[in-house]
């Protein structure tokens, strides 16, 4: 079932505080803290990266390089409360570089943000934090497939990654207004195609992304 907005915010506040402490300890050279960071973020980073490439070896190599670089250059990495967007942005850059190197794609804008297979729980299902039926999940995935790659990625980062619009702008290397536009257009299209979706996921969840 849906969590209340207040309860969810409290949970995320605690989690971010815990992540910030681990990040500080990792930068100080504590291997246990580094291993905890890897375990904490690996699954969601793997899921995000898997939307850019179906090459599991390429994805694993990029993730390994990401964490190896973190440990190698830990003394040069600044303390930050924005750990998740930092990791998302770093992984995205590594995957895009490898995809561009190994394919005929000529620019980052051409790299698709693919849908996952029907056997997997989708980021979008996880992000709305509710129990959708198999039919409802399939319907939502079909609607999402009609959005642009950038709209789907922005929605993924907003709800599954739980990033702010400013953080999404940093990951996507666009301005905050562009993020607001991507979310507004994508979510508007979902709402137009499936008005009752609001009653399933909670109006606050969608409305918070719309420009005032």
Automatic annotation (TrEMBL):
Entry keyword annotation includes Transcription: yes
Q: Which residues form the RNA polymerase sigma factor 70 region 4 type domain?
A: 139-190
Q: Which CDD domains match?
A: Sigma70_r4
An example of a Pfam family matching this protein is Sigma70_r4_2
Q: Please give the start and end residues of each transmembrane region.
A: none
Q: Cross-referenced InterPro entries, in alphabetical order?
A: RNA_pol_sigma-70-like (IPR039425), RNA_pol_sigma-70_dom (IPR014284), RNA_pol_sigma70_r4_t2 (IPR013249), RNA_pol_sigma_r2 (IPR013325), RNA_pol_sigma_r3/r4-like (IPR013324), WH-like_DNA-bd_sf (IPR036388)
Q: Which keywords does the record carry? A: Sigma factor, Transcription, Transcription regulation
GO MF term (any one): DNA binding
One Gene Ontology BP term is:
DNA-templated transcription initiation
Give the protein family. Belongs to the sigma-70 factor family. ECF subfamily.
Q: What protein name is recorded for this chain? A: Sigma-70 family RNA polymerase sigma factor
Q: Which organism is it from?
A: Spirosoma profusum
